[in-house]
């Protein structure tokens, strides 16, 4: 809770992962991937509840064993590859309202694929949204390895075409990096939104998104190579 506002941490963890079967249960340095997220969430100063949304009974059992609530099972139709976060969150919030009359003010999205987040990341994101009631949400971002101002698409002609331009510069893709606008990538460590953003605006993040800029952040785990890299990071640098 922050300033009498209820804060829900929601962990979306489907079992039907195709690129890495049972990804959320795959062991990373001796424990299931999802365990890192739940253990970190439990250290937050503000999270009142931690709930895992899953269609998998196995994930539900592991999530409970590490301290997450699993008061409902996600419908299988909301666990496919093409399902976005929004209907998953609407299902969770609707179930909690209908069955428990529970309506949190703030919802925190905690992806299991970001095991290097800290409780401080979670709390900073919550504090930032609370301090900016005019915002719809907060997203954790970091500077990308390469600016999109030096990226291209391939036109129908077969030639490269700059992805974006700097106004007034003929070949802005050839400018040195310090002369290009700063850009940020979404790293997904923590996303925080008001209940009204989801339920009233019908959007996941809304129009007014506050950035929580992280100096150092890693892309989430999405491939077997990522598991190897994260194993190296945790074993050599700690968590």
Description:
The model has no long low-confidence stretch (mean pLDDT 93). The chain is an alpha/beta fold and 239 residues long. The chain has a 6-stranded mixed β-sheet with strand order 4-1-5-9-6-10, with helices on both faces. It has 6 helices and 10 strands. The protein has 2 domains: 7-142 and 184-237, Alpha-Beta Complex (Spore Coat Polysaccharide Biosynthesis Protein SpsA, Chain A); 148-179, no CATH class. It is 28% helix and 19% strand. The radius of gyration is 19 Å and the shape is globular. The longest helix is centred in the middle third of the chain and has 16 residues, at 85-100. It has helices at residues 33-41, 57-65, 85-100, 119-131, 195-199, 224-237; strands at residues 7-12, 27-28, 31-32, 49-53, 106-109, 137-142, 152-154, 160-162, 185-194, 209-213.
Summarize this, please?
By secondary structure, the chain is an alpha/beta fold.
Count of β-strands: 10
CATH-level-2 architecture of the largest domain: Alpha-Beta Complex
- Give me the side-by-side strand order of the main sheet: 4-1-5-9-6-10
Radius of gyration: 19 Å
Tell me, what's the shape?
A: globular
Average pLDDT over all residues: 93
Task: Work out the count of structural domains.
Answer: 2
Specify the CATH class of the largest domain: Alpha Beta
N-C termini distance = 26 Å
CATH superfamily of the largest domain: Spore Coat Polysaccharide Biosynthesis Protein SpsA, Chain A
Sheet having the most strands: 6 strands, mixed
The chain-level structural class is alpha/beta
What is the chain-wise order of helices and strands? Answer: EEEHEHHEHEEEEHEH
């Amino acid at each position: 809770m922050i300033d009498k506002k209820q804060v829900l941490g929601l962990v979306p963890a489907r079992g039907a992962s195709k690129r890495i079967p049972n990804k959320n249960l795959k062991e990373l340095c001796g424990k299931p991937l999802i365990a890192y997220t739940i253990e970190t969430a439990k250290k937050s100063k503000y999270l009142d509840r931690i709930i895992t949304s899953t269609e998998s009974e196995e994930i539900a059992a592991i999530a409970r064993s590490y301290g997450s609530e699993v008061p409902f099972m996600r419908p299988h139709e909301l666990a496919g590859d093409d399902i976005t976060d929004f209907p998953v969150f609407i299902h969770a919030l609707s179930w909690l309202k209908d069955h428990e009359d529970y309506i949190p003010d703030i919802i925190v999205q905690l992806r299991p694929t970001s095991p290097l987040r800290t409780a401080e990341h979670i709390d900073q994101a919550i504090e930032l949204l609370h301090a900016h009631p005019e915002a719809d949400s907060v997203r954790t971002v970091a500077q990308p390895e390469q600016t999109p101002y030096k990226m291209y698409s391939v036109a129908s002609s077969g030639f490269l075409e700059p992805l974006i331009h700097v106004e007034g510069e003929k070949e802005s893709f050839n400018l040195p990096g310090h002369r290009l606008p700063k850009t940020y990538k979404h790293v997904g460590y923590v996303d925080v939104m008001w209940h009204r953003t989801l339920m009233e605006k019908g959007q996941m993040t809304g129009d007014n998104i506050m950035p929580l800029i992280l100096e150092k952040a890693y892309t989430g785990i999405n491939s077997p190579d990522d598991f190897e890299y994260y194993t190296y990071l945790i074993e050599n640098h700690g968590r």
